[in-house]
Design a protein that fits this description.
two-stranded antiparallel sheet, five-stranded antiparallel beta sheet, 489 residues, Substrate Binding Domain Of Dnak, Chain:A, Domain 2, 2 domains, SH3 type barrels
Length: 489
């Protein structure tokens, strides 16, 4: 029995080797053009689509695994973060139990999200790609059977074409046998040769029919299966990404609720059961690199101003009589020029360069009214007055359906006004040129007299409350850290 098994195994191996040699010989002949090759362009297109679909599916599977690995990493990072918060959250602080529940729910949410992604996306993806190896092997087998079919077909055709040549070859030995053999043997020899030739032809024909049948069966199955597989990719992609998108949406909704609960716990901790926390994190102002702004300005102005030149009194006349009257003492201080005032009209805008110049008449839709100029500020020393113009914002009445509306009060802004900011944190001044701020204070931001004097991260301005109380701008203006405020207007 062992010898029979060895014989069968050896015979099968020899048969397989012979098939491989025959196929290799047939492919060489086809490449050299000495044998024709059966081609099916429709099937080749299906094979190209199959290879493309396999490549796309493999890439999607790889990226999906990477996404799941990222979700797993985020789960671990989030878990460590909540554990760290639990460790630093002291037992006597309010919301300790809520914090523990939030940490537990956070871990459950991540675990559930990862598991559902595996079940509804990754396993489906694996099942989808699991059918490709079998189909790929069948396509390769179909190619081998096609070569066997072409080889059998060529062999049979060669026997058919060589029929006459074989009869000629058979006739020659018969003529020799006629000379050497008795008459009664010559007919038997000829019949044996004819039977042998017919046997080879019949065997070739049977092999051709067999190989053709096997090839056509595989070819028909693949011709039906490959287009169906190619069309199924759309539905698979839709279902896969629907599942991923839906799972992610639900996960973020639940996680958002959890984060809101965490935010509530933090708010409770901050207020300490309704009492403001004394250990709140304080915002620090950016350090100033330059000295006190006002002291620098005073030093600069004192160095730039020249001493007053008084007129000399007339000398005593030669006759010794005193002068009738002494000449008045004057200085070189010039009268400061009036600052231009800007008048803003609503709905029309009127701008005049001189406070004494009347405004231009408004369009026909508004009644005519002369602009009221702001009275000139009291005369001050030139070293203390600002060179920037004051801004006067005035709204004029407008007519609606022929009715004259009352004009709102006139609004003025300090010199060099830019915009308003609101203090978000308290700030205590550390120098004489800085403003004290309380959370909620509104500050009118103005330009620096000299832009080079401005420190990075600091602004110049005056509190709106001080300005509305008609306090002196130069005495109440000051610098303040920008990061303590938020732009208001």
């Amino acid at each position: 029995m062992a010898e029979m098994g060895k014989g069968v195994s050896a015979g099968k191996i020899a048969s397989n080797v012979q098939k491989k040699l025959t196929r290799a010989q047939e492919k060489v002949l086809q490449k050299l053009g000495k044998a024709d090759e059966t081609k099916d362009e429709q099937f080749e297109q299906c094979v190209q689509n199959f290879n493309k679909q396999l490549t796309e599916g493999s890439k999607l599977q790889k990226d999906l695994r990477t996404y799941l690995a990222s979700v797993k990493a985020m789960h671990e990072a989030s878990k460590k973060l909540t554990e760290c918060l639990q460790d630093i959250y002291e037992p006597e602080w309010p919301g300790r139990d809520d914090m523990n529940r939030i940490a537990e729910n956070n871990d459950l949410l991540w675990t559930d999200y990862h598991q559902k992604l595996v079940d509804q996306a990754l396993l489906t993806m694996d099942t989808y790609l699991g059918q490709f190896p079998d189909i790929k092997s069948r396509i390769a087998k179909r190619g081998r059977k096609l070569v066997d079919y072409d080889s059998a077909r060529h062999h049979f055709e060669s026997l058919q074409n060589a029929k006459k040549k074989d009869e000629t070859k058979i006739a020659k030995p018969v003529s020799l046998l006629e000379k050497a053999a008795p008459q009664w043997c010559q007919g038997k020899i000829q019949a044996h040769l004819v039977a042998q030739t017919n046997l080879l032809r019949n065997q070739a024909e049977e092999e051709l029919v067999k190989s053709q049948k096997v090839f056509e069966e595989m070819n028909v199955d693949l011709q039906e299966e490959l287009p169906s597989l190619w069309n199924s990719r759309v539905g698979f992609y839709v279902n896969t990404f629907h599942s991923i998108a839906g799972l992610e949406e639900n996960f973020h909704k639940e996680m958002s609720k959890l984060h809101q609960n965490l935010n509530d716990v933090m708010n409770t901790l901050e207020t300490q059961e309704g009492k403001p926390s004394t250990n709140a994190f304080t915002v620090k102002a950016q350090p100033r690199k330059k000295a006190n702004l006002f002291s620098r300005l005073k030093l600069k102005r004192s160095s730039d101003s020249s001493p007053a030149k008084a007129n000399k009194t007339p000398s005593t006349p030669p006759d010794g009589s005193p002068a009738a009257s002494a000449a008045p003492k004057t200085t070189n201080h010039e009268e400061p020029a009036a600052a231009p005032t800007f008048l803003v009209d609503t709905p029309s805008v009127v701008v005049s360069k001189s406070p004494s110049q009347p405004s231009e008449p408004a369009p026909d839709t508004t009644p005519k009214k002369e602009a009221e100029a702001k009275p000139a500020p009291p005369e001050t020393d030139s070293t203390q007055s600002s060179s920037l113009p004051a801004v006067v914002v005035e709204t004029f009445p407008a007519t609606v359906n022929g009715t004259l509306e009352s004009a709102p009060p006139k609004v003025t802004m300090p010199p060099g006004f830019l915009y308003k900011v609101r203090a978000q944190h308290d700030y205590g001044a550390t120098d004489s040129d800085e403003l004290n701020l309380k959370s909620g204070d509104v500050v009118l931001v103005t330009q620096f007299d000299n832009p080079d004097e401005q420190d990075e991260g600091w602004l110049m301005g005056i509190k709106e409350s001080d300005w509305l109380q008609n306090k002196e701008f130069d005495q109440h203006k000051g610098v303040f850290p920008e990061n303590f405020t938020e732009k208001y207007q």
